Amino acid sequence: MPYLNIVEVESALENLATAYPGLAQLIDLPETSVENRTIRALKIGAAAPFPKDAVVMLGGVHAREWGSCEILVHLAADLLEAHQNGTGLGYGGATYSAAEVSGLLQRLDLVLLPLVNPDGRLYSQTVQPMWRKNRNPAHGGGNPAPGCVGVDLNRNYDFLFDFTTAFSPAAHPQVSASPCDPMVYAGPHAFSEPETRNVRWLLDQYPRTGWLIDVHSYSQDMLYNWGDDDNQSDNPAMNFQNATFDHRRGVPNDLDYAEYIDKGDVDNEVLLAERFCQGVAGVRGIAYTPKTGFHLYPTSGTSDDYAYARHLVDPRKGRVLGFTVEWGTEFHPKWAEMEKIILDVDAGLVAFCLATA
Amino acid sequence: MMSAVPNEPLPNDILRVRVTARDVDTLRALLHEVRPDTGGSPSIAPDGSAGIDAYVPEERIPTLEREGVTVVRIANASAKGRAAQAEVGAGNRFAEGAVPRGLAAKLPR
């Protein structure tokens, strides 16, 4: 089974929803892609007489990281089949019992959006394999250069979007305000892109979401909040909303700024990231590393930091712990290798979900 | 040396190179100045050297090379990508209603 093309991703989700009507439900996202493609998520979980917490998982954000999409489609297919037939799941040396699989889907809803950026995936799979952004031509001012198309969707969320104000001049954030930056153009404003607005809608639509996992490649890491600076849990006033600290963020190992995160939250994030890595390692011994998103250089506008920041900006919103998986060691592994990576990462994701109990 | 890749190199192909700097500050300054496309997370060795994968066309490699920095060509990323494009499904394997199955083993109770 080779990599899925974008039509097959859509059909795969439809057919899973049809095959497992009591367990899976298609979610039509409110906005089509820039090139007018329908985007759908799949919610999987058993009916329950109580409100269920949810885990939102994203794939296919960066166009060239094809396998992220397959990781989530396979995760859904395995969990649904196992729950339906009352079996456990075996990922190499990592195994989960039927009771664990059943309990997971009875306790949690998994809201899976395997292909956030279908336009970019199509372009990467058929034209320019190294393409990363979406395919929005609207911000390039008519410049015909190929790099003037598209926005880096994982810089387009509303978290420190005004990075020139947020970060120290000595910081080197991996983000650009230039529409012709071929890789990390953040867009003209936060949520300028329909693809990121769809993700925001999902989080709004499922207010009991407690965790967001954005699946990317590569580096064999499991990242948790924050990505703009080092973490600290001592000074709540030193935080991303406090303009006193503008122009001071993003320098590693300095005393000038570190991003506040509640001690209980970061302890929980570390635990979950470690459980993910243990799940991965159980398959065939591949070592993934739990670490914060801030490593050497800062980022802004990412999904994981936006997800966690939401409840701090608006206390009416639920707290969502944010994670980013960075699978593998290259963008385009041969499919035979990708199959092994899917087993690794899906075992980690099941372990993660079980650890949310 | 370039690794063997299944496709012949074409003009403007993007190469995967490993950039290793003598220390973190040197690497950070290099990334800020040149702003190459990067892949993976940076690694820091016990001796303090720091490395990261960069993706650049051949003609941009000299912009990465400087005192305290080594650049090693790893692969032709564009050629690998073209080979991967040949592994993308054609048509629609689910058009007739086939239900996707995952790769995990289904274990009896």
Provide structural commentary.
Chain A is built from nine helices and twelve strands. Chain A is an alpha/beta fold and 357 residues long. The two termini of chain A are 34 Å apart. Chain B is α+β, with helices and mostly antiparallel strands. Helices cover 22% and strands 32% of the residues of chain B. Chain B has a four-stranded antiparallel beta sheet with strand order 2-3-1-4. Strand 4 of chain A pairs antiparallel with strand 5 of chain B.
Give me the secondary-structure topology.
The complex is a heterodimer of chains A (357) and B (109).
Chain A: H1 6-19, E1 24-28, E2 40-44, E3 53-58, H2 67-85, E4 88-91, E5 94-96, H3 98-107, E6 108-113, H4 118-126, H5 163-166, H6 194-205, E7 209-217, E8 221-224, E9 231-232, E10 259-260, H7 263-284, E11 289-292, H8 303-313, E12 321-327, H9 335-355
Parallel strand pairs in A: 3-6, 3-7, 7-12, 8-11, 9-10
Antiparallel strand pairs in A: 1-2, 2-6, 4-5, 8-12
Helix pairs in contact in A: 1-2, 2-9, 7-9
Chain B: E1 14-21, H1 24-34, E2 37-44, E3 50-57, H2 61-64, E4 69-76, H3 77-85, E5 105-107
- Helix run count of chain B: 3
- The secondary-structure class of chain A comes to alpha/beta
Secondary-structure-derived class of chain B: alpha+beta
Tell me the overall shape of chain A.
Answer: globular
Query: Strand order within the widest sheet of chain B?
Result: 2-3-1-4
Helix content, binned percent of chain A: 25-40%
Q: What is the string of helix and strand elements of chain B?
A: EHEEHEHE
Largest interface: A-B, 68 and 48 residues
Strand line-up across the major sheet of chain A: 1-2-6-3-7-12-8-11
Summarize the biggest pleated sheet of chain B.
Answer: 4 strands, antiparallel
Compute the average pLDDT of chain B: 89
Share in β-strands of chain B: 25-35%
The total of beta strands of chain A comes to 12
Q: Major sheet of chain A: size, sense and barrel closure?
A: 8 strands, mixed
Could you tell me how far the N terminus lies from the C terminus of chain A, measured between alpha carbons in angstroms?
A: 34 Å
Estimated radius of gyration of chain B: 20 Å
**Unreliable stretches covering 5 or more consecutive residues of chain A:** none
Give, in order, the helices and strands of chain A.
Answer: HEEEHEEHEHHHEEEEHEHEH
pLDDT < 50 stretches of chain B: 1-6
